[in-house]
Amino acid sequence: MKGTYQLVAKRIIYAIITLFGLTVITFILSHAGGESMVISTYLNPQSPVPISIQERNLEAEFHLNQPLYVQYLYYISGLIHGQWGYTKTPIFSGPVITAIEYFLPNTIELSVLAVLIIIVLGIRLGLISAVRRDGSVDNLIRIVSFLGVALPAFWVGLLLQEAFASNLVSPFLNRLPLTGNVSNSLMIGLSWYQNGISYPTHFIFIDAIIHGDFQVAASNFIHLILPAITVAFTSLAVVIRMTRSSTIDAMQQEYIKTVRIKGIPEKYVIKYHAQKNAMIPVVTVIGIMFATFLSGVVLVEYVFSYPGIGGWIVQAFIADNLAGIMGANLVFGIILVTVNIVVDIIYLFLDPRIKY
After folding, report:
1. pLDDT tens, 55-94?
2. pLDDT tens digits, one per residue of 147-158
3. Any bridge partners for residue 193, and if so which?
4. pTM for the predicted model, two decimal places
5. How far apart are CA 106 and CA 293, in angstroms?
6. Domain regions of the chain by residue span
7. Which of 6, 24, 185, 309 has the fewest CB atoms within 10 Å of its CB?
8. Which of 102, 107, 106, 156 is nearest to 290 (CA)?
9. HEC profile of 167-188
10. Does domain 104-325 have CATH number 1.25.40.10?
11. Is residue 200 reached through a cis peptide bond, with omega within 30 degrees of 0 on the bond before it?
């Protein structure tokens, strides 16, 4: 157990070093376009104050007239105190940290549900495919997985919208919402929901349960179903194929042959011996998927008019909003580092022999 704690502590130290490097990179990139790029978002042409005076005031406010290392120290201080700059886009204008509080929890909710679907279905179908290798069930699963790879996510989303908006499915399923992340009529007058942000966690589903508003929680959940299925379907194939190949490889190892010689039933051989080792590469893939979903579901969010962080980032790029772009990159870096730590910890439980 002591060795486990040491390994976790080592990974956390590596993560801190990585995040330090990330702040250096974002700082350099934010200054690569010169001072005009840094302050352009904050200039107000409608102000009676001349632009030249505004520029001088902003240079002093952002310490641009001081050495780079001093600017970096102020930059770090601003990050720690939540002063990440200002974003001005068609869908949101305000502090970057507020935009992240508004959009990121929605994307995390979508990503978590998509990953849960992938874990439940992908691993299960991959195991079935491996156990029934080259059979009709295996071939069917592989065909479905190939479809997941071949079909673009936005097209799958459009197909689902068309199917659930028509009479192609049951009346109950036709009630699934096609856009948004919650019924707006339910949010009117809620004390814990202000300016599009829920409190205290900023996750609508969790906050609704905390405050006992279960109808809001249910509304949020059913709004997530179709976008989550869309995201999961296009990534499910990777997990199915990875689980299948890892399980087949594990089943051919010598220790599995030894277990079989001992007369242990095949289902226990798979469940307690082969599956555990086969999950190590699968966990890696799922961890990377989750981190990727947070920045890579832009088209799905657009199709379902879902207020996630992807759409805001696209608007920030279009508007040349440097503070928003760098803030989003920093958040994604933090999430990716955190996911890697969690994956490494899961490794230790799957195989305590692993050393870093």
Report:
1. 788 777 777 788 888 889 988 998 998 888 888 888 888 8
2. 877 888 888 888
3. 198
4. 0.83
5. 12
6. 104-325
7. 185
8. 107
9. CCCCCCHHHCCCCCCCCHHHHC
10. no
11. yes
